[in-house]
TrEMBL record:
<dbReference type="GO" id="GO:0070062">
    <property type="term" value="C:extracellular exosome"/>
</dbReference>
<feature type="active site" description="Proton donor">
    <location>
        <position position="286"/>
    </location>
</feature>
<dbReference type="GO" id="GO:0005509">
    <property type="term" value="F:calcium ion binding"/>
</dbReference>
<dbReference type="InterPro" id="IPR036026">
    <property type="entry name" value="Seven-hairpin_glycosidases"/>
</dbReference>
<dbReference type="GO" id="GO:0004571">
    <property type="term" value="F:mannosyl-oligosaccharide 1,2-alpha-mannosidase activity"/>
</dbReference>
<dbReference type="GO" id="GO:0005975">
    <property type="term" value="P:carbohydrate metabolic process"/>
</dbReference>
<feature type="compositionally biased region" description="Basic and acidic residues">
    <location>
        <begin position="90"/>
        <end position="113"/>
    </location>
</feature>
<comment type="similarity">
    <text>Belongs to the glycosyl hydrolase 47 family.</text>
</comment>
<dbReference type="GO" id="GO:0005783">
    <property type="term" value="C:endoplasmic reticulum"/>
</dbReference>
<feature type="binding site">
    <location>
        <position position="639"/>
    </location>
    <ligand>
        <name>Ca(2+)</name>
    </ligand>
</feature>
<keyword id="KW-0735">Signal-anchor</keyword>
<feature type="active site">
    <location>
        <position position="419"/>
    </location>
</feature>
<dbReference type="Pfam" id="PF01532">
    <property type="entry name" value="Glyco_hydro_47"/>
</dbReference>
<protein>
    <recommendedName>
        <fullName>alpha-1,2-Mannosidase</fullName>
        <ecNumber>3.2.1.-</ecNumber>
    </recommendedName>
</protein>
<keyword id="KW-0106">Calcium</keyword>
<dbReference type="GO" id="GO:0045047">
    <property type="term" value="P:protein targeting to ER"/>
</dbReference>
<dbReference type="GO" id="GO:0031410">
    <property type="term" value="C:cytoplasmic vesicle"/>
</dbReference>
Length: 659
């Protein structure tokens, strides 16, 4: 779908196509003031030729790295009956929740549904692709060798100029923000619930927010997060030297809970201290969902210009991440130099599906609020790349190489590394006021493939979402995967004919499974991952999967299920989670995660995650509020629970305003 079709509300689309380009890679070496003749030109030519030979070599290595593991897995699974060593994967949230998965899993079951296609054909395919890449690299090297030194010099200068122009245009975007009419937010604060018991529960959750906020303020003000046991600040490398993650993440929760003084002090901090002119290598995904999302949400709720300005300023800083040959962004970016790279652990230098697939909502709003389509163009190009790729069994692998534009390892997950990509397909459809038909189709096609290949029922009837590794199922579900219950239910209304009830039911079944993962622990809070094999159901069996870091996904699903069904069990389950948080995570200095939810005594991890304030407490508060607080037909929650309004078509906006 053309970008224009998605952006009916741009006030002043600035010119310029896709940034693209080689991200300063080639231009970086030469000094702009050197003359084009003599020994200097000769050295530059040599450098360029070396660079090409080197890239050809790297292309070959990459090809080998990211195709061989699949083949060897197939071979070990099919021929040798040994347990393949699975590649380390990490929670795509990397920092706080990051855990490299256990390398080997002897229980990867052969013969489970989801068998790959013909292995010989797949192998042949991979080899053909490697050959093709190789030939292309050689061809390019040959062409360059035939050029005159002056031509090479000119190409380099052109490339440098393009990058410089991109950067200039990107900067100009936020200096000249067009005026926008602030539309008063719908349902940003709600009535008190009529039922006294519910009112009391809601007030309790607000008190929890106060406890978390006051302690952060007291011990870690201006830093990213709080260590509630040590009573000091906590920094995570995810944000480089950008500061204030908790403040920005908490803004909208403070607003909807009507904590006005706290909102004002947070706003002043943003005005005076939130600084993006720092030499920092950041996670593009984390900075986008927490900082860009938090600032956009604060703007849409309060109408304060500072939030719009800061959101766009940060969005501009993230643009160089897209300077890759395919336009699939890097995972990590130095926001000063504009140099990007990928996580060293990611398959063959790949970018991660859940990271580059979780920019769409925020970037559309950045275009909307800046009047510049560049942000939307970048994310629409991601979609084009994805749509041009063949999907194994209709599934989206978690790894995609930004240089070749090809998939890395065939590992599919609705939890870490994949999760919010699917969430953003559905929400792109909803946020477009149901005009983005492409997103809708991609979402329902993906969900259908997930149902066929990943969703299973345990022997005692619990529905779970397994992970798919090159056609083999790992019968494990992550806490992160629990968000999917809410997602299935939220999409149910628009499901293909006759499937609405089915998806609501699927949402309810996932909610039940995730509830069981909480209920089967001593602390009544769920582990990071739980398994359905070796005779257990919904229980963590590995020590490194027993922790709980104040994550929101289970209460997030309760929130959607409550709103969409009003089945009282969701309020009951949510209240059990509140009690467990109070009993086991609350300490004098705030709230802490737990190292093992099956132990009888708390072992604290000493981190109050910023998403506890952004998400966990917000979802809980909404469960005990009336539905007119943030009505789902007007607001989309980004993956960090930040609020983005539906980009209404003009017609509908008029209708709303007239009411
Ligand atoms: C949050 O940062 C977001 O919800 C993200 O999508 C997943 N992980 C954390 C919370 O668990």
């Amino acid at each position: 779908m053309p970008v224009g079709g998605l952006l009916p509300l741009f006030s002043s689309p600035a010119g310029g196509g896709l940034g693209g380009g080689l991200g300063g890679g080639l231009g970086g070496g030469g000094s702009g003031s050197r003359k084009a003749s003599g020994p200097a030109a000769f050295r530059l030519t040599e450098k360029f030729v070396l660079l090409l030979v080197f890239s050809a070599f790297i292309t070959l290595c990459f090809g080998a790295i990211f195709f061989l593991p699949d083949s060897s897995k197939l071979l070990s699974g099919v021929l040798f009956h040994s347990s393949p060593a699975l590649q380390p994967a990490a929670d795509h949230k990397s920092g706080p929740g990051a855990r490299a998965e256990d390398a080997a899993d002897g229980r990867a079951r052969r013969g489970e549904e989801g068998a790959p296609g013909d292995p010989a054909a797949a192998l042949e395919d991979n080899l053909a692709r490697i050959r093709e890449n190789h030939e292309r690299a050689l061809r390019e090297a040959k062409e360059t060798l035939q050029k005159l030194p002056e031509e090479i010099q000119r190409d380099i200068l052109l490339e440098k100029e393009k990058v410089a122009q991109d950067q200039l245009r990107d900067k100009a975007v936020f200096r000249r923000l067009p005026p926008v009419d602030f539309v008063p937010p719908i349902g940003a604060v709600g009535r008190e619930p009529a039922d006294a018991a519910i009112r009391e529960k809601r007030a309790k959750i607000k008190e929890m927010m106060k406890h978390a906020w006051n302690n952060y303020k007291r011990y870690a003000w201006g830093l990213n997060e709080l260590k509630p046991i040590s009573k000091e600040g906590h920094s995570s490398s995810l944000f480089g030297s950008i500061k204030g993650a908790t403040i920005v993440d908490a803004l909208d929760t403070l607003f909807i809970m009507e904590m006005k003084d706290e909102f004002e002090e947070a706003k002043s901090w943003v005005e005076e201290n939130l600084d993006f002119n720092v030499n920092a290598e950041v996670s593009v995904f984390e900075v986008n969902i927490r900082f860009v999302g938090g600032l956009l949400s604060a703007y849409y709720l309060s109408g304060e210009e500072i939030f719009r300005k800061k959101a766009v300023e940060l969005g501009v800083k993230l643009l160089p991440a897209f300077h890759t040959p395919s336009g699939i962004p890097w995972a990590l970016l130095n926001i000063k130099s504009g140099i990007g790279r990928n996580w060293p652990w990611a398959s063959g230098g790949s970018s991660i599906l859940a990271e580059f697939g979780t920019l769409h909502l925020e970037f559309l709003h950045l275009s909307h609020l800046s009047g510049n389509p560049i942000f939307a163009e970048k994310v629409m190009n991601i979609r084009t790349v994805l749509n041009n790729l063949e999907k194994p069994q209709g599934l989206y692998p978690n790894y995609l190489n930004p240089s070749s534009g090809q998939w890395g390892q065939y590992h599919v997950s609705v939890g870490g590394l994949g999760d919010s990509f699917y969430e953003y397909l559905l929400k792109a459809w909803l946020m477009s006021d149901k005009t983005d038909l492409e997103a809708k189709k991609m979402y329902f096609d993906a969900v259908q493939a997930i149902e066929t290949h990943l969703i299973r029922k345990s022997s005692r009837g619990l529905t779970y979402i397994a992970e798919w590794k090159g056609g083999l199922l790992e019968h494990k579900m992550g806490h992160l995967t629990c968000f999917a219950g809410g997602m299935f239910a939220l999409g149910a209304d628009d499901a293909p004919a006759g499937l609405t009830q089915h998806y609501l039911q699927l949402g309810a079944e996932i909610a039940r499974t995730c509830y069981e993962s909480y209920n089967r622990t001593f602390m009544k809070l769920g582990p990071e991952a739980f398994r359905f094999d070796g005779g257990v159901e919904a229980i963590a069996t590995r020590q490194n999967e027993k922790y709980y870091i104040l994550r929101p996904e289970v209460v997030e699903t309760y929130m959607y299920m409550w709103r969409l069904t009003h089945d009282p069990k969701y309020r009951k389950w949510a209240w059990e989670a509140v009690e467990a948080l109070e009993n086991h995570c609350r300490v004098n200095g705030g709230y802490s995660g737990l190292r093992d939810v099956y132990l009888r005594h708390e072992s604290y991890d000493d981190v109050q995650q910023s998403f506890f304030l952004a998400e966990t407490l917000k979802y809980l508060y909404l469960i005990f509020s009336d539905d007119d607080l943030l009505p789902l037909e007007h607001w989309i929650f980004n993956t960090e629970a930040h609020l983005l309004p539906v980009l209404s078509t003009n017609k509908k906006e008029v209708e709303v305003n007239e009411k």
